[in-house]
Amino acid sequence: MFTGRNNGRPRRCIFYILAFLFSQFLFVIILLRSESFDNVPLSQQTKHDNDSWEHYLDWREFISYTSERSAKFYLYNLNLSDTLGVIRKLPSTRHYSCGYRPRNLPPPSKANVSVVISFHNEARSMLLRTIVSLLARTPEDYLHELILVDDGSQDVTLLADLKRWMGGVFGASRRLGVQFLVNRERKGLIWSRNRGASLAGGHYVLFLDSHCEVNEGWLEPLLERLTLSPQLAVSPVLDPIDPLTLGYRKGNELLKGGFDWSLHFHWLRRQLAEKELPEMPYKSPAFAGGILMMSREWFLKLGGFNSYLKIWGGESIELAIKLWLCGGQIEIVPCSRIGHIFRRRHAFDFPPQSDAQETYLHRMLIGFAIPHFSPTQYSNSKIIAESWLDEYKNMFYALRPAARRIPLDYTSDEMQQLSRQRQCQPFEWYLRHVSPELRMQFEELAATGSLRNGDRCLHARQKDAQLMLASCHHGDVTQWSMLRSSGQLSTQRELCLGVASTKRITLEPCGRNETTRMTQRWLRLGTHLLHAGTLQCLDNPLRDRLELSVCRPHAPSQSFQFALEMETHT
Ligand SMILES: *[C@@H]1O[C@H](CO)[C@@H](O)[C@H](O)[C@H]1NC(C)=O
Ligand SMILES: *[C@@H]1O[C@H](CO)[C@@H](O)[C@H](O)[C@H]1NC(C)=O
Ligand SMILES: *[C@@H]1O[C@H](CO)[C@@H](O)[C@H](O)[C@H]1NC(C)=O
After folding, report:
1. 283 and 233 in one domain?
2. 80 lines ligand 1 (CB under 6 A)
């Protein structure tokens, strides 16, 4: 009995040990397997996307010459960009029907495209990914050429290295033409794009940014629309690529491009018509960002991007106005998707994902403050206003008074020449037929601009929003907007003039409910501002006092004049 037990123990021990070893073995196998799924570099995962694996080795060398710069310099995650590989698989973000719907495409001999990419200090890995994604996902026959314009980048060997790299990788296998242009001194995006277009030989020209990744099937839906109408210009829907994580998200096809009366770009939410599907092409008052494609001939006929504009800023708004007024149209095509890094610095250009429609309209109405509106942007906007806005340019000046003082080297007459030559419509037409949003702003505004009492202007101090009367000639003197429907008197920072229960005049966030509407509601009586809740008038009886008092028709201390007062539309 004892023997039996003694004999059984070692056997059981061996069994347990074997079982233990086996389970460890299994565990290690499972661990290894899961690791082999998680830790494959992204560059390898993309291997099947293209024959990029061997090029990956080459590209490492090419990007290793990227100049040492902080992430701030590029405004995106350079380290991550360098590890992502020359091309990666992107999620399909368009509607599933876009992929299988038959398309009416003209033969390549009748419709090919020149792609113009102008860049200034772009990181090598980012630029290369833009180029390679384009070449990998564009039907070869339709791609006439690639025109790369290096606009005075500090990386002086970039273009030569790029030429060598592309020669090595694509030289033998593709008949694609590539033009390499360089501006030794920076001439700006506008100049560079115009130069690229003037040298282009394709039927169509696509202006692409240098921090993009084109998605599968981006070209065909655009081409199909363009061949229907020679004066059309099209944009894809831009899928935002996060500058920090480089994550690729689905862009919003319910947005269109537009601008406010300061000539600043805004995304506008569109309403779908009955039976209109979100994936169908739709008209837009302006382009969705700076990526657009149109007939090269038509682009040149329109004078290209206005060459009076400097560096960048406003050029695609100018082209949009010009197009619409001179017989063209703009469409956004949701079946075409191009990924684009929206950098944080231009936060205003970032397409919204949420449904904050009211905020957008409100911001547009009061000419939402732009933190760093540079002198170039002022002068570019002024040129647009002088060239195209006719008498509506006064709206622009009322919101951007500093632009009045900016000298221009040429007369508005010169600028209006194109408009006359091409027999373009007046700006009124654009308001009526293209941008109801802009017209609505105009109709909603009762008055706008600085608000003068005697020789001083009502000013909301920037740092603490303290109300005061300040010199009207001060550059940042507050621009007010009086809204017709709510009677609110708003600054560009969305603060409204209100009255506290103690009858003290206050500045508080503009409200949208009934309570705030009574305390923030003003009526215009001649040059008086009558507060609706108390039926008393805004008054400046002593030099630095602002109060409500009984309205007196001819009291100068109660007379407040806006820079621009609209006629009543009744
Ligand atoms: C990027 O990589 C460099 C060198 O490997 C390192 O010094 C730097 O801290 C990294 N930057 C970021 C933002 O991770
Ligand atoms: C593109 O079209 C132009 C103009 O018809 C033609 O000269 C050129 O050869 C075409 N390019 C390609 C690559 O087919
Ligand atoms: C109205 O809005 C203000 C601020 O915008 C808020 O303090 C107040 O509670 C709101 N009143 C009502 C009745 O919702």
Report:
1. yes
2. no
